[in-house]
Design goal:
By secondary structure, the protein is α/β, with parallel strands linked by helices. Helix content is about 35%, strand content about 20%. The chain has a seven-stranded mixed sheet with strand order 6-5-4-7-8-11-10. It has a six-stranded mixed sheet with strand order 14-13-12-15-16-17. Helix 5 runs parallel beside helix 6. The chain is globular, with a radius of gyration of 21 Å. The structure holds S-adenosyl-L-homocysteine, thymidine-5'-diphosphate and zinc ion. The site of S-adenosyl-L-homocysteine has 20 residues, from loops.
């Protein structure tokens, strides 16, 4: 289902795509590698455009999904305690919802290590996860979650409908924005969702990305940058209706979209209110997009200037959190091991390898606590509260955090 790279029309409506930001040659953001793998490293051009017809913000080039979501895809959703709580709350919300029937069936797209479905399973409720990445799917299975190691799309969704009946809830967190083939997703939802069921998904919000200049949300896996307006238009196009939107504070600011079959529910007031606020803010107007691109360049210049000055002063600078987001920062800003010594990360699968493109060594967090640097560049800024609380001793010992969202500062 992947189309050739180099799209110049909107992936949803075929309208004209206007490019507004070029982040250059970039590697696969979650492909950590050994020294020996460097010569064969994959690169593509990371650029973003907005559709003049439906307003969908999206990448100009599509990376083939098999390159990103492989057997050893390293991202584990359970790595943050805040996210574990968020997903447990989400699961309980579904189980208590009016649209869950007496014997509910909950399907998740991108179930990863089972962080959400684990709670559904513990409640003894029927469920199924779709997760193409083999190792994280296996982690979920070990905690008793039912997983199909597959991409969710029209044919696989239809198979599940035939074998297991309709789903009351189809949920996806930080996954629908990863999927260029949105039409196949909606057709799959159409095949699988019960008449009164809900398709609920949450993803980083373009409104927050613009407001915070969080350009590191832009990388190969994040193909779409949704707004309530663009999701409403896409839902309508495929026979559905956006019936609710909710702001979430996780991952730097997200929107949760609730979608029903056309006419199956009355849209909440929040839908029209959010769409109107987006219109008033001009979230996808040429002016806003130009200003965003200029803000991105300013953050890059400020960050590189700060890191060069610290190097000249002989300070030790490391980074914290080998996030997918940080691939965009390190490669766009040209951060190498001369500016940033290494990155620490709790994910065993990333440790001992090099970061994509920039090739910074990834080390375990113990490295950080056994010899505190002068400065730590917080790549996992979306988990700032959790990490800063855990690393209070670093701060007490005189260490300083470097942040670059919404602008570059030392705290
Ligand atoms: N839902 C989790 C994981 C997000 S990472 C969370 O919010 O933390 C995105 C996940 O989607 C990855 O595990 C990836 O393997 C999976 N994925 C990508 N394309 C998919 C598709 N078409 N169907 C199901 N899962 C998909
Ligand atoms: P995250 O920001 O959730 O996502 P992405 O990779 O999509 O940008 O990634 C968080 C990374 O930070 C993950 O590799 C785990 C790591 N991490 C730590 O090392 N320590 C922590 O305390 C937390 C919360 C995360
Ligand atoms: Zn469009």
């Amino acid at each position: 289902m992947t189309t050739p790279v180099g799209e110049t029309t909107c992936r949803v409506c075929r309208g004209p795509l206007g490019e507004f930001l070029d982040l250059g040659r970039q590697p696969l953001s979650d492909r950590f590698l050994t020294e020996r793998e460097i010569p064969g490293e994959f690169f593509y051009r990371l650029a973003v455009g907005a559709c003049a017809s439906c307003g969908m913000v999206q990448l100009m080039e599509e990376v083939p999904r098999e390159l990103m979501f492989r057997e050893d895809y390293p991202y584990h959703s359970s790595g943050s305690s805040v996210m574990r709580e968020h997903f447990a709350r989400t699961a309980h919300g579904f189980l208590e919802s009016a649209y869950a029937g007496p014997d509910p069936f909950v399907v998740e797209i991108g179930s990863n290590d089972g962080v959400m479905l684990g709670a559904v399973r513990d409640a003894g409720v029927r469920h199924l996860g779709f997760e193409p990445s083999g190792k994280v799917a296996e982690v979920a299975r070990r905690r008793g979650v039912r997983v199909r190691t597959d991409f969710f799309e029209e044919p696989t969704a239809s198979e599940v409908r035939a074998a297991e009946g309709p789903a009351d809830v189809i949920y996806a967190a930080n996954t629908i924005c990863h999927i260029p083939y949105l039409e196949s997703i909606f057709r799959g939802v159409d095949a699988l969702l019960a008449p009164g069921g809900r398709f609920v998904f949450e993803d980083p919000y373009w409104g927050d990305i613009v407001e915070k200049t969080s350009f590191d949300q832009i990388y190969d896996e994040h193909f779409y940058f949704f707004t309530a307006s663009s999701v409403r238009a896409a839902a309508e196009r495929f026979g559905f209706e956006l019936v609710d939107v909710e702001r979430l504070s996780v991952h730097g600011g997200e929107l949760r979209y609730t979608i029903a079959r056309r006419g199956a529910a009355t849209p909440a007031a929040a839908v029209a209110e959010t769409v109107e606020r987006e219109r008033a803010r001009g979230l996808t107007t040429p002016d806003t997009l130009r200003r965003f691109a200029a803000d991105v360049e300013r953050v890059r210049d400020d960050l590189t200037a700060l890191l060069r000055r610290l190097r000249e002063e002989g300070r030790r600078v490391v980074a914290y959190g080998a996030t997918a987001k940080s691939a965009t920062v390190t490669n766009f800003c040209g951060l190498d091991s001369g500016l940033v010594e290494w990155v620490c990360d709790t994910t065993p699968q990333k440790q001992g390898l090099l970061t994509p493109g920039a090739h910074l060594p990834v080390v375990p967090p113990e490295r950080f606590s056994t010899s505190y640097p002068d400065y730590a560049l917080l790549f996992a800024w979306n988990h700032a509260e959790e990490i800063m609380a855990k690393e209070q001793e670093f701060r007490d010992a005189g260490g300083r955090w470097i942040l670059y969202v919404p602008d570059v500062r030392v705290v």
